[in-house]
Amino acid sequence: MTPLLSVQGVTKHYGAHIGCADVSFDLYPGEVMGIVGESGSGKSTLLNCMAGHLPPDAGQVIFDTRGDGPRDTLTMSEPERRMLGRTDWAFVHQHARDGLRMGVSAGGNVGERLMAVGARHYGDIRERATDWLDRVEIDSDRVDDRPTTFSGGMQQRLQIARNLVTGPRLVFMDEPTGGLDVSVQARLLDLLRGLVRDMGLSAIIVTHDLAVVRLLADRLMVMKSGRVVEAGLTDQVLDDPQHPYSQLLVSSVLQV
Amino acid sequence: MSDYNFAYLDEQTKRMIRRAILKGLAIPGYQVPFASREMPMPYGWGTGGVQVSAAVLTPDDTLKVIDQGADDTTNAVSIRSFFERTAGVETTTTTQEATVIQTRHRIPEEPLSEDQILVYQVPIPEPLRFLEPRESETRKMHALEEYGLMHVKLYEDIARHGHIATSYAYPVKVEGRYVMDPSPIPKFDNPKLGDMPAIQLFGAGREQRIYALPPYTQVVSLDFQDHTFEASKADQVCGLCGAEDSYLDEVIIDDKGGRLFCCSDTDYCEGRRARGYKGPAFPGSEVAA
Question: What's A1-88+169-256's CATH class?
Answer without folding.
Answer: alpha beta
